[in-house]
Amino acid sequence: MWILSFAIYFSLKWLTWWRARLRIAHSAWRSAAYLLVWPGMDADVFLDARQSVVPPAPLNWIRAGLETIVGTALLWVVARSIPQAHPLLRGWVGMIGLILLLHFGAFQVVALAWQSFGIKAEPIMSAPLRSTSLAEFWGKRWNLGFRQLAHELIFRHIYRRLGANTAGLLVFAVSGVIHDLVISLPARAGYGLPTLYFLVQGAGVAVERSRFGHRLGLGQGARGWLFMAVVLTAPVFGLFHPWFVQRVILPFMQAIRAL
Length: 259
Hints:
Blueprint: H1 2-20, H2 28-37, H3 43-47, H4 58-81, H5 87-116, H6 134-141, H7 144-162, H8 164-187, H9 193-209, H10 211-216, H11 221-233, H12 236-239, H13 242-255
Helix pairs in contact: 4-5, 5-13, 7-8, 8-9, 8-13, 9-11
């Protein structure tokens, strides 16, 4: 899984740098830093020394530190304490811990460090639980590195011809295929389930933006948040299906001595 994940990630990362290298005047060390020491995909912003940067607030450092600690505890302490008779629960707790440790903790710390040096590095995650709609969750708060990439390479080029809803659904479909490659392929099972999960997300966004969704009050407030939570979580076992947890996550946790 990790070899395939890194191969896809660095291929896309190189592509974003390649597209920005001549468009944005920058020093060689910024290119090296972007390629090797920054997980985001926002090459234009990261490489541009003219971007203004606000120094990170102390509270942001504290939050990132706490999320790193919580993720570490879930992965190496809480998961181990769950009885072996519940392997899927062990795997899910460890997986949530890994996401907190990396995406909300370590990657956030890296972003804050670059901001301290005057480089505009936007965090990968932007308080996703504050979203009040699926569109806000996927478009403005969750994994902004992929969102930036998908917008530049797919959505921006086709939405005028196909419309925003169709273009958005295509972006979700591509995301699903990528997740199938890094989740179902290593697990050798569950093919198509991650893609189906992301198609459900795209359909949910379309419902939010429809007249029917507006009449129901979706896309804002408590109703919007509840609709988002249901659509995100109800099919989540199709995204991280049991074969992936048992055949990939649990062996990985054993390899890093979390179990």
